[in-house]
Amino acid sequence: MGKRALITGITGQDGSYLAEHLLSLGYEVHGLVRRVAFEDPERRFSRIRHLLDRITLHPASLESYPSIFHVISRYEFDECYHLAAQSFVAESFADGFSTMSVNINGTHYVLAALRELQPRCRFYFAGSSEMFGNAVEAPQRETTPFHPRSPYGISKVAGFHLTRNYREAYGMFCCSGIAFNHEGPRRGFEFVTRKITNGVARIKAGLACEIRIGNLDAKRDWGHAADYVRAMHLMLQQPEPDDYVIATGETHSVKEFCEHAFAEVGLDYREYVKLDERLYRPAEIELLVGDASKARRVLGWEPTYTFKELIKEMVKTDLELVLKGVKDNASM
Ligand code: NDP
């Protein structure tokens, strides 16, 4: 019998890749989803539609301890990957209270329910490079002090410390990944990388003539989500729980991302990308780049996608999606 895993946030980008990965390893995969998702499966399950007959979904909300407790009381899980969160930094500035409440309490509820019902279940927390914020050093590693610059970053620092404290106070196997940005064709459309690749596809198809972007000079360490979920799984297979930076170690500006994405379809980004200062963050992070040497050494983890391969795959997929939409509309 394979292991049984619970994934919160299974409908999201990482949740869908992780579910695929765990299924390929013979796991029985369960997912925690919002009740509304069952009412609008076409849209809400778009990333896991191809997996629906192989996974078990449970309705629960990060805002309700009893709903999480109920799911965890029904099965014995070997591993729990807590990925659900309000994950968009800009939204956290718009509504910091909801982000803090969902991200901090949601994490606390999952940890508390596991402690009560299944203290031997191994736990992964989705920490973020946004916890480093205005970092005092580059590249950032596990020992770099946190200086978050958004309600989102602050909520992740709190989740990180909660996770560490459950490990130290109750001896539970709790790990945090401090994951730098990771993208892919399933990234939400509000995130800058997807906004760019979707914009490129729409411009190429003649459906749009520009993309509006905030800070083109912000530099990020961008990997592929399919690579990052392998690291999450590896963390929970170790003899001891620990925290790990997951990053490529390369940094590129938003401008470079635009340049490569437009070049994929033979266009010059300078003709289509318009600066919009309203899209600047109230407190920006200029540079994030991670040092994942601990993950490489201890977990044997390596990213497989290059920056250019990531962009190529995202543009290709968006172009196919946009052209399919144009064709479907024409035949209606
Ligand atoms: P997504 O935004 O794609 O997915 C977020 C998931 O959380 C969705 O399944 C969403 O459900 C669920 N969720 C949000 N709010 C609630 C709620 N109130 N109750 C229940 N479920 C909820 O994020 P990613 O897959 O990209 O990221 C996964 C995790 O990793 C997140 O915690 C994110 O903060 C973190 N992370 C991501 C990085 C990245 O670059 N992708 C970098 C570092 C950390 P629904 O579909 O119903 O909205």
Features:
332 residues, alpha/beta, Rossmann fold, UDP-galactose 4-epimerase, domain 1, 7-stranded parallel β-sheet, two-stranded parallel sheet, binds NADPH dihydro-nicotinamide-adenine-dinucleotide phosphate
How would you sum up this structure, described in words?
The protein has 332 residues and is an alpha/beta fold. The protein has 2 domains: 4-183 and 223-246, Rossmann fold (3-Layer(aba) Sandwich); 192-220 and 250-288 and 306-330, UDP-galactose 4-epimerase, domain 1. Helix content is 43%, strand content 15%. It contains 12 helices and 13 strands. It has helices at 13-24, 35-39, 41-44, 65-74, 89-94, 96-117, 151-170, 192-204, 225-235, 254-263, 293-299, 307-330, and strands spanning 4-8, 28-33, 55-59, 79-82, 122-128, 174-179, 182-183, 211-213, 219-220, 223-224, 244-246, 252-253, 273-275. Strands 3-2-1-4-5-6-11 form a 7-stranded parallel sheet, sandwiched between helices. A two-stranded parallel sheet has the order 7-10. Helix 1 links the parallel strand 1 (4-8) and strand 2. The longest helix is centred in the last third of the chain and has 24 residues, at 307-330. The radius of gyration is 20 Å and the shape is globular. The structure holds NADPH dihydro-nicotinamide-adenine-dinucleotide phosphate.
- The proportion of residues forming helix, as a percent range, comes to 40-55%
What's the N-to-C terminus distance? 48 Å
CATH fold annotation of the largest domain: Rossmann fold
Strand order of the largest sheet: 3-2-1-4-5-6-11
Write out the distinct hetero groups bound to the structure: NADPH dihydro-nicotinamide-adenine-dinucleotide phosphate
As a whole number of angstroms, the C-alpha radius of gyration is 20 Å
Order of helices and strands: EHEHHEHEHHEHEEHEEEHEEHEHH
